Amino acid sequence: MFATVLGVIPESEAREYVLQRCATLPEQRSVLADAIGTVLAESVVAGEDVPPFANSAVDGYAVRAADVAGAEAAPVELDVIDEVAAGAASSATVGEGQAIRIMTGAPMPAGADACVMVEDTERLDGGSRVRIGRAVEAGAAIRGVGDDVHVGTTLFEPGAIITPSVAGVLASVNAREVLVVRRATVAVLSTGDELVDDGSPLQPGQIRESNKTMLVGMVREAGCDVVDHGVVRDDEAALEATLRHAADTCDAIVTSGGVSMGDYDVVKAVLSRIADMRWMQIAIKPAKPFAFGLLTASDGRQVPVFGLPGNPVSSLVSFELFARPALRRMMGHTVIDRPTVEAIADEPLQRRPDGKTHYVRVRGGFGPDGRVHVRSVGGQGSHQLAATAAANGFAVVVDGDGVPPSGTVPVILLSVV
Question: How far from 400 is each of 281, 341, 351, 353, CA to CA, in Å?
Fold first, then answer.
C-alpha cells in the first residue's frame, strides 16, 4: 500500500477522484418494508388494476342518475333497499325509485350508475327511505376500475427512489418484493486518547467526543445503515484491527481526525500502511485537509475510506461535500447532491481573497419576495459547532471580497427553509 500527498487542489478534482472510486453496490431483492429509501434496480409493471372494482368515492347513496334528475328543484324520495360498507358487497340490484346506502370504497351495486353524497340527503322513516336534494350525472362520485392504475402500466423505472408513497403504490399492485440497489453499511469511528465518551470528568488535555456522534447521524440521514465502532485509542495495532474488521463487514468507512499535513497520527500511520490513500489539501474553507482511499477487504472488495478532518465543522463540511455524495452514488442515487438555490444575502458575507472557496454557514428562509434570504449564523471557526448547528445552508462564497448586502449567493440547502 502507499499514500499520495499533493499540494492544494481544486474541490472539483477531489470530488471527481472520490466519485470515480466509489462503485455502485450490488442489487438485491427486498421486501417493501425494508426497501423504503433505496433505489429501484428494475422497472415495475402493474400486474393488477387499482382499484380492482368500481367503488364509491363518497359516503352516501348509490342511485340511478335518471331517478334524481331535477332533484334541486323538487327533492326526490327513494326506497333504501340495502346498505353496503367498504370491504363488503351488496347482492341487491338498484331498480327504479330505489337506492342503496353506501360507504366510501364499497363496491358499486348492480343497477346504480352514480352516487349522491350523504350531505345532499335526508334519512326518512328510520332509514328505509331517503330524500335526495341534488341531481347527479351518471358516473358521479364513482371510482372506475383502473382509475388509478391499469394492468400493464409501467409504474416506475430503474433509479426511482422508493419513498413511502412509492411503496404504497407498489403495495397496491401486490409488488411485495422489488429489486433494489443495496443500502450501504458504513462504519464510523473516532480515534484519540484525548476523547472522552463515557461522561466521566475531563482530565487536563481531554475533550468530549462529538464528531462521531454527529457523523453517525449524518451517515444515517444520508440513507445508510451505520455501524458505530466507537472511539479507538491511539494504538496502531488496535486501530488496524478495527479498520480491517470494518472493511470486512461494511461497505465504507468514515473516520475523523489525523488528516492534516503536519499531523503524525495513528490514523495516518495505519492507513498509509494498509490502504491506498490520497492525503489532500483542498482549496476550500473550512475542511481543507481531507483523505480518501481504498482498503482491501479479506474477500477482495475495495472499501472506500473517508478521512475527515478533526475540527467538527470541517468534519461536517467535508462529509457533505465529498462523503455524502459518494455514499449516495454507491446506493444508486442519480441525484447525489443537496439542492442549491440562488439566495439573497440580507447582510454582508465578508471574506478576504485567499485562493479558496468559503462555505459560510447561514440560516435562511423565504422572504415576501418569494426568494430565499440568508444571514450568517455567527461564528465561522472550524471549531464552532454550536453556531453551525443553527445553519440550514452553506453559502458558497467564491474567492474574493465576499458578498455585499442584498447580493446574491449560491446556497446549498441542508434542510427545508
Answer: 20, 20, 7, 4
Question: What amino acid is encoded at 358 in this protein?
Answer: H
343 half-sphere exposure, CB direction, 13 A CA radius = 32
For the chain, the first-to-last Cα distance in angstroms comes to: 45
CA dist., res. 123 & res. 363, Å (int): 57
Cell of 373: 434570504
Of 313, 177, 332, nearest in space to 251 by CA: 332
Tens digit of each residue's pLDDT (9 = 90 or more) over 282-311: 999 999 999 999 999 999 999 999 999 999
What is the rounded average pLDDT for all residues in the chain?
95
Give the tens place of pLDDT for each residue, 313-334.
Answer: 999 999 999 999 999 999 999 9
d(CA 27, CA 56): 41
The pTM (predicted TM-score) of the whole model is: 0.89
Name the nearest CA neighbour of 195 among 184, 205, 186, 181.
205
Q: What are the structural domains of the chain?
A: 3-25+183-330 (3.40.980.10), 31-50+155-181 (3.90.105), 55-143 (2.170.190.11), 340-413 (2.40.340.10)
Q: Which residues contact 151 (CB under 8 A, 6 or more apart)?
A: 46, 47, 48, 49
How far is the C-alpha of 264 from the C-alpha of 311, rounded, in Å? 16
Distance CA 27, CA 160 (A): 14
The cell numbers describing 120, all together, are 345532499
Is the CB of residue 326 less than 8 Å from the CB of residue 320? no
Q: Please tell me which of 4-18, 111-125, 201-215 the model is most confident about, judged by mean pLDDT.
A: 111-125
pLDDT tens per residue, range 141-194:
999 999 999 999 999 999 999 999 999 999 999 999 999 999 999 999 998 888
Cell of 74: 323538487
Three-class SS state of 244: helix
Query: 59: Cβ–Cβ under 8 A, 6 or more apart, which residues?
Result: 102, 103, 104, 117, 118
Q: What is the pLDDT of residue 1?
A: 60
Per-residue HEC secondary structure of 134-191 comes to CCCCCCCCEECCCCCECCCCEEECCCCECCHHHHHHHHHCCCCEEEEECCCEEEEEEE
- Spatial strand order of the sheet with 98-102 comes to 114-117, 60-63, 98-102, 76-84, 129-132, 121-124
